[in-house]
Write a structure and sequence with these properties.
The chain is of the alpha+beta class. It has one domain (about 15-200): Galactose-binding domain-like (Jelly Rolls, Sandwich). The chain has four helices and nine strands, in the order αββββββαβαββα. It has a five-stranded mixed sheet. Strands 2-8-4-5 form a four-stranded antiparallel sheet, with no helix packed on it. Strand 4 and strand 5 (about 75-80) form a beta hairpin. The radius of gyration is 20 Å and the shape is globular. The structure holds calcium ion.
């Protein structure tokens, strides 16, 4: 990005993000480790600083069955793996109903599922990615420094018979390149400038 463009972006408070919400929806095959995949192809070649993935219109009657991962073909990160299952159990009995975003710094999905309880939907929102037995996962840590360009593949699977689910679509969003101050940071800069002015007047 040229200095002029970056300056204009900073002046307008814009964020240098790439978002592609074109991922196709699908039904998750019941009780199938092979699961199902869907690709999004990104043409832009930017250096990733952070990634988030959103499942749109997610439905499932037993979240503990479900695993979701994202990969660029080289690196793979879990979004969630059989929530509520520390190993060898049927997992959490709450459900999925709506749009769920997975991003570093999001809410605790396992805690939200536990709070929801049997047959109750986990609230829609932004959740931190997690792995097997709720192991912490960082999307920035996994994909930071890698190019946005290429094929990004969402994998989902269901590990137990009976309860089923689907998504209507999915998307991926990247923060890339030089950090652009967000409106909150710009306001902070403004406040700092004001503080400087106040100090000068003393
Ligand atoms: Ca199932």
């Amino acid at each position: 990005m040229g200095a002029l463009t970056a300056g204009l972006l900073m002046a307008s408070g814009a964020v240098a993000d790439i978002t592609d919400n074109s991922g196709a929806g699908f039904s998750i095959p019941d009780n199938s480790p092979a699961g199902i995949t869907s690709d999004i192809s990104i043409g832009a070649d930017e250096t990733i600083t952070d990634v988030s993935v959103t499942l749109f219109g997610a439905q499932h009657s037993w979240v503990g069955d479900v695993t979701a991962t994202i990969t660029n073909g080289t690196e793979t990160a879990a979004l969630f793996v059989r929530v509520g299952d520390p190993g060898g159990t049927s997992g959490d009995s709450s459900t999925l109903d709506g749009d769920y975003t997975f991003a570093d710094g999001g809410d605790d999905l396992w805690a939200a599922a536990d709070a929801a309880g049997f047959g109750v939907a986990i609230p829609v929102g932004t959740y931190a990615p997690s792995g097997v037995a709720d192991a912490p996962v960082s999307l920035a840590g996994t994909f930071g420094g890698v190019s946005t360009q290429g094929t990004w593949t969402l994998f989902m699977s269901d590990a137990a018979q009976g309860d089923t689910g689907s998504i209507t679509g999915w998307g991926i969003s990247f923060s890339s390149g030089a950090a652009i101050p967000e409106p909150g940071s710009l306001a902070l800069l403004g406040a700092m400038g004001l503080a400087c002015i106040v100090r000068r007047r003393r």
